[in-house]
Amino acid sequence: MIKVENVKKRFGEEEILKGITTTFEKGKTNLIIGQSGSGKSVLLKCLIGLFKPEEGRIYYEENAIQDMDDDQQRDLREEIGMLFQGGALFDSMTIEENVMFPLRMFTKQKKSEMLGRVNEVLSRVDLNNVNKKYPAEISGGMQKRVSIARAIVNKPKYLFCDEPNSGLDPKTATLIDNLIQEITHENDITTVVVTHDMNSVMEIGEKVVLLKNGTLAWQGDKNEIFKTDNEDVTNFVYSSDLFKKIREVQLKEG
Amino acid sequence: MKYLEDIGSYFLMLRKVFSSPTKASVLKELIFKEINDLIINSLGIVAFISFFVGGVIAIQTALNVNNPLIPKSLIGFATRQSIILEFAPTFMSIIMAGKVGSFITSSIGSMRVTEQIDALEVMGINSLNYLVLPKIVALMLYPLLITIAMFLGILGGWMASVYGGFSSAEQFIQGLQDDFDPFHLTYAFIKTFLFAFILATVPSWQGYYMKGGALEVGRASTNSFVWTSVLIILTNYIITQLLLS
């Protein structure tokens, strides 16, 4: 579980996060949604320690990241898996080397053991026979899956995903969403996904946090999102024609 | 004010480069890869430029010295002095600021743009140590490259002088040996080590702290060449003043 308490983040004079308080629950896919510029990615980067908030505290279980020294933060980061928006695979390494990278850095396993684990996670994300290819030689969807494999190879307790299905076709996007949720449940990890894709919300939103202009506008689950009268939620959710029509049908059916 | 901030950030970067070391087995592989990228892959251009510039120095000296009272051995002497004191260590380093420096900035800058550096940091890896230290260690072999540049530059001068009919082989070799001061080599290699450090760290700083996208990677590479060259020239002046005057 990750607890966020009154987190504020500024860039110069501009306050991007204006006191966010929420909890991301273990064994669930927790989604942070909101329009562009609402502070989603900044909150994510505060959670993983790439940005330091000016105020507030972030707890991993009972331990505040602000109280940890460099070594403790490094230990914590070994328990974190991260899926970046563009995949962030290392161009100079093959797929196999990319996925093996966290194991080489943080474990003392023999190469054969590492290879076994790499093949296991690559099969888990339905990728076979790509071990010796370079990231530039595979599709965007495959790169995302390799990135998921790299994120989970060291059995993390926390998985963070930044816009995991951006730039993907709807079918591949759904596949990636479902994969993230399955992995979350299988390994009982705390997963936080930043997205503005309502399809993702409908697929995997076990807990949804809506940000608006750096504040927490609403939180609930994917079922509650269609029932709430919260104006910020309805403005966000029904901004697309598809969801407007769904809303009309829902209202007609009472 | 911006320059002061940049200087401060450069020294803070250096402190971080030498802290929280990467796992030794991984570091060893990275160092060998950098030796290949930065040193071995530069051999061709260094050899080509040195050989022909050495030849040009010899020809220019021969053509500009027509006085029969000046011995022909001056061609060898001038070639040796020019190459050992300035051409090989300093001007070859300026050329390397373009080749190696731009490569370092663009490769680290591209990693910044594509979030690969963020990925390293999130994994708990000291990205500066992982990316920059192997380059510094690899470039400590840079004096070998400069030794090759010295040898080939003088060889080029010898061939241009002898086969161009400007002096005999004996006269050229006599010139190479005249008034030879071994401290000039020491001076040249002290400079080379300092230039190697500049070549590894300034382009890395430019790439690591760049912001923006692909266009900014190009800008950072240009800035990297400009600032690396400026620092090499300034360092050259200071070291020459300190060691030779």
TrEMBL record, chain A:
<dbReference type="InterPro" id="IPR017871">
    <property type="entry name" value="ABC_transporter-like_CS"/>
</dbReference>
<dbReference type="GO" id="GO:0016887">
    <property type="term" value="F:ATP hydrolysis activity"/>
</dbReference>
<keyword id="KW-0067">ATP-binding</keyword>
<feature type="domain" description="ABC transporter">
    <location>
        <begin position="2"/>
        <end position="238"/>
    </location>
</feature>
<keyword id="KW-0547">Nucleotide-binding</keyword>
<keyword id="KW-0813">Transport</keyword>
<dbReference type="InterPro" id="IPR003439">
    <property type="entry name" value="ABC_transporter-like_ATP-bd"/>
</dbReference>
<dbReference type="GO" id="GO:0005524">
    <property type="term" value="F:ATP binding"/>
</dbReference>
<dbReference type="Pfam" id="PF00005">
    <property type="entry name" value="ABC_tran"/>
</dbReference>
<dbReference type="InterPro" id="IPR003593">
    <property type="entry name" value="AAA+_ATPase"/>
</dbReference>
<protein>
    <submittedName>
        <fullName>ABC transporter ATP-binding protein</fullName>
    </submittedName>
</protein>
<dbReference type="InterPro" id="IPR027417">
    <property type="entry name" value="P-loop_NTPase"/>
</dbReference>
UniProtKB/TrEMBL annotation, chain B:
<feature type="transmembrane region" description="Helical">
    <location>
        <begin position="225"/>
        <end position="244"/>
    </location>
</feature>
<keyword id="KW-1133">Transmembrane helix</keyword>
<feature type="transmembrane region" description="Helical">
    <location>
        <begin position="185"/>
        <end position="205"/>
    </location>
</feature>
<dbReference type="InterPro" id="IPR030802">
    <property type="entry name" value="Permease_MalE"/>
</dbReference>
<protein>
    <submittedName>
        <fullName>ABC transporter permease</fullName>
    </submittedName>
</protein>
<feature type="transmembrane region" description="Helical">
    <location>
        <begin position="136"/>
        <end position="164"/>
    </location>
</feature>
<feature type="transmembrane region" description="Helical">
    <location>
        <begin position="38"/>
        <end position="63"/>
    </location>
</feature>
<feature type="transmembrane region" description="Helical">
    <location>
        <begin position="83"/>
        <end position="104"/>
    </location>
</feature>
<dbReference type="GO" id="GO:0043190">
    <property type="term" value="C:ATP-binding cassette (ABC) transporter complex"/>
</dbReference>
<dbReference type="GO" id="GO:0005548">
    <property type="term" value="F:phospholipid transporter activity"/>
</dbReference>
<dbReference type="Pfam" id="PF02405">
    <property type="entry name" value="MlaE"/>
</dbReference>
<keyword id="KW-0812">Transmembrane</keyword>
<keyword id="KW-0472">Membrane</keyword>
